[in-house]
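Practice problem: predict the structure.
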Amino acid sequence: MSPEKMVHMANQIATFFKTQPGADASDKVAEHIRDFWEPRMRAQLRGYVGEGGSGLDPVVLKASELI
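Answer:
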């Protein structure tokens, strides 16, 4: 998938979980990505973060450390 689409999807997930009460949003984002993104998508995210993660929400950046 294009990096732009991946960033958009990951940021949408972060936006949703930031509005939810309770648990840390980064934990929930990491859990969602582990559960619903296929291995290639997770690998692409890790690679993108490794290159700087331009445009990713800070919640996603923190979540990427948990995946």
